[in-house]
Amino acid sequence: MKRLREPSTPAGPDWSHELAVYELNPRTATPEGTLAALQERLPELRDLGAGILWLMPIHPRGVERAFGSAYCVRDHRAVDPCLGDLDDLRRLIAAAHGLDMRVILDWAGRFTAWDHHLMSDHPEFYRRDEHGRALHSGPWKDIVPLDYDVGGVGRWAVESLRYWIREADVDGFRVDVALMYPEGFWEWARPQLETARPLFLLAEAEGARFHPAFDMTYDWALPPVLWSIADGEAGPQAIAELLESEASYPEGAVRMRHLVNHDTAREGYPGHYFDGRFDEDYLRGVPLPSKYGPGLAAFAVVCATLPGKPMLLEAMEEGRIDRATLGLPAGPVRWWRELHSTLLNAYRSHRALHRGGLDWVEAPDGICAYRRFHGDQEVWVVLNLSPRPASWAPPPGVDLRGRELLSGAVIADAPEALDLQPWDYRLVSSGPADRGS
């Protein structure tokens, strides 16, 4: 076995360590599209295993030059009336806290809508061309970038974030396009936000340099690795290589492991997210279910069991993304929801998963095997990431007696081998409590 991770305490507040993330758009997460209706869903989401609810922007949307994007924000210190009001948000967050859940808001403060009040109140906050005209933000013509080199902009951003901490008791923020802020901005801003209590900060960015200002960063590299495995262009060793490539990240830095987020939920993927790893025709032309192929469920297991924190996008557990189906087998998809529920709740309850180390096990072609461990607790993850049946014999000294996490079955006698069908998987919790010793 090869040690790829040592156990470590994850970055972020103590309450965040064992909680999985669930991203949702409050406008689409319920038929009513309101915060009050979302509050009614909280027990269901808690049962699913959601721990940190990431709410996409809740603010009033711009109208001028806009096309309805939630990230085109007209007022960063207001709740969109179509969702409810500040009291509705307060009640939602209080109810979440009562269920041992937390809520983070999506902060899209790198730019504003064209009809934002700052355009008239502080025209000096915006980047302008040589004729004094405000510039739209790259390909996003509905929004205008703020100039963070102007001192007042940073103070405005900090005060806006403080507003939500003070008025609604939010638990943190996901920062949109975090890589577009000036270097050092979040190192400067974070202490000013945490004067009362620690927060959980997620950066829409990838790279060691975003830690420790942020607790968690996106893992953009994992989806292409999994697509390559699904296509037969790579084997499970590519996952180990990805983990080795993260050696420069500081101890405790949390990586967001996910199959899809709201930006990549459409049939095409913007190529700039993946640094030229795939050609544009593939990214934009191949639907998500085809990218993951028959390995979709196995890859969900990978996301939930690698070091880091799993993130599930709204409606994924129902077999839908962006109101399109995932192409699951015909018939009831209860098993798919139960799979995600088991995985997210196992992450919460097993310290080997949310703060444990990882030993990689050399295995036959197509087999992916690794041990997550913390103290006397172990979780063995064994997957067949190939279209052929395969068998895996545990290395000498490995005791696989315990409990199969997905089925709940007790493994009383250590198996000589695990037989796996194509794209099959096993999770075995193997510790004194599981073995009855």
What's the arrangement of strands in the largest beta sheet? 2-3-4-7-8-9-10-11
CATH architecture of the largest domain: Alpha-Beta Barrel
Which residue ranges are poorly predicted, with pLDDT under 50 across at least 5 consecutive positions?
Answer: 267-272
User: Domains counted in the coordinates: how many?
Assistant: 2
What is the alpha-carbon Rg in Å? 22 Å
In the CATH scheme, the class of the largest domain would be Alpha Beta
Euclidean distance between termini CA atoms: 25 Å
Q: CATH superfamily name of the largest domain?
A: Glycosidases
The number of strands is 21
Major sheet summary line: 8 strands, parallel, barrel
- Number of H- or I-type helical stretches: 13
Average of pLDDT? 92
Say what the CATH topology of the largest domain is: TIM Barrel
